């Protein structure tokens, strides 16, 4: 009943569920790739928090762009692009691994009795409110999210997005990557593409 609504998918596995949603909407004749979002904001919140802890800052003072997907090795924080903060190679490797494994860490801490809940709610609220502000006409609202793009890396890919009255106004360039980030990006693409294919095949089988 709302064919022009913006839809945010936060249900895991986001790499796959967004592809499922896209195919279902396509079959209904209402798919708009500028209005379907995989909400990956939790990766940004975690990245900001871990960097702030390491560097003695407040999380609100840090903004780490996170690209790729929303699980394991497909999560790629671009630590080389954090203004005013520098990292050793070891810090980059350790932080990246911690951010990628943070969801698993929570499940293990809860002994399998659940996953991240409050932080997931915070992530949903942050992304939802950013989108509402943009829909209401606020200029310059940028959030990372997992969307269908130009297919340069994979059909769906998380990257910084300029949000606006029509959902995605612009898919922003991911910028220059460090050698570590470039290797990580190239190394994740097979996994990401397989996750996407699972969703496409689930709907079309």
Structure, explained:
With about 200 residues, this protein is α+β, with helices and mostly antiparallel strands. The protein has one domain: Lactate dehydrogenase/glycoside hydrolase, family 4, C-terminal (L-2-Hydroxyisocaproate Dehydrogenase, Chain A, domain 2). About 45% of the residues lie in helices and about 15% in strands. It has a three-stranded antiparallel β-sheet. Strand 6 (about 155-165) and strand 7 form a beta hairpin. One of its GO terms (molecular function) is L-malate dehydrogenase (NAD+) activity. Pfam families: Ldh_1_C (PF02866). InterPro entries: Lactate/malate_DH_C, Lactate_DH/Glyco_Ohase_4_C, Malate_DH_AS, Malate_DH_type1.
Give me a quick take on this structure.
Belongs to the LDH/MDH superfamily. MDH type 1 family. It catalyses: (S)-malate + NAD(+) = oxaloacetate + NADH + H(+). This protein is α+β, with helices and mostly antiparallel strands and 205 residues long.
Distance between the termini: 26 Å
Question: What is the mean predicted local confidence, pLDDT?
Answer: 96
pLDDT < 50 runs, ≥5 residues: none
Radius of gyration: 17 Å
* Oligomeric state as shown: single chain
Strand content: 15-25%
Helix/strand/pairing class, anyone? Answer: alpha+beta
CATH architecture, by name, is Alpha-Beta Complex
How many domains comprise the coordinates? Answer: 1
Please trace the helix and strand order, writing H or E for each element: EHEHEEHHEEEH
Pfam family, one: Ldh_1_C
Protein name: Malate dehydrogenase
Function: Catalyzes the reversible oxidation of malate to oxaloacetate.
Catalytic activity: (S)-malate + NAD(+) = oxaloacetate + NADH + H(+)
